[in-house]
Every structure is written in C-alpha cells, then in structure tokens.
Automatic annotation (TrEMBL):
Methyltransferase as UniProt keyword: no
SMART domains tied to this protein: REC
Record key words, sorted: Phosphoprotein
Protein's recorded name: Response regulator transcription factor
Domain Response regulatory: start-end pairs: 2-118
InterPro entries, A to Z: CheY-like_superfamily, EvgA-like, NreC/VraR/RcsB-like_REC, Sig_transdc_resp-reg_receiver
Record PROSITE patterns: RESPONSE_REGULATORY
Amino acid sequence: MRAYIIEDVEMMREVIFSFINSIDGIDVVGSAGDGNQAMAEMCKLQPDLVFTDITLPEVNGMEILYLLKRKFHDVHVIIFTSFVTEEKIRLAFEGGADGFIEKGADMNDFREAIDILQRGGRYFDKALSQYDSFAESSKKRAFYRS
C-alpha cells in the first residue's frame, strides 16, 4: 500500500512518516506541509492511503478529503487533528473519511487504522465516542474502532 502524509508541522510529519514507513506492506511515497503541494504531488503519485491533518496552509485537510474522494474513488483518507469538534467529525463522515485520529492518540492507532482499512473497515478513534455527531453517524455506517 502506497501512503502519503500531509502535516504542516515538520517534526510531526517526520515522526509520522518514519512510523508509517516502518509498517510492513506500507511504502510512504511522499509528504507535504501544505495542501497545494500535497494535491499536486498526489495527482502524480496516486497513493492508496493518505493521512492528513485538518489545519493546513493553502488547502485544508477537509478540502483535501473531498477532492481526493471525488478524483480517486479508491483512495483511503485518514484525518488526524489536535482540535476535534462536532463539526469536524460531521464533515469527515460526510466527506467519506476512512478514519479519524485525534493527535493525542498513541502512534499505534495509526497502525491499527491501517490494519482495519486493509480488512475493509473504517477506523475512528475511541475518543470520538463522546461527541454526538460521531454517535449518530456511526449508527448509519459500518466501521470498526478500537
């Protein structure tokens, strides 16, 4: 599986890149710190899996989610963010996100998300269960979570 990382904080991007790239069967083919650069590179690289922060310069992570799902129907997109809100959860569900991870989560949540995606599921961090929009949306869609 070919992966791409989008995170504007360089140190965080490097940590996620290294961790994801260490997982068997995953090849991180690129990364970017802003949405414009990411979209340009992903159109060429066509990754199978994209991890994107929401708060990004130029094009934000939710816009990336919607654009990727429209252009590449088979791409898996996992959203990760420090600032979880009801609205972000709702937009992620509506946009077809394959996963949602809160940045305070353990790095192994990224590994678990990949495992679940490879089995045909969707991964949503257990911390999201406190939000009404997650509880309501999760009743309507099949998914797995830790």
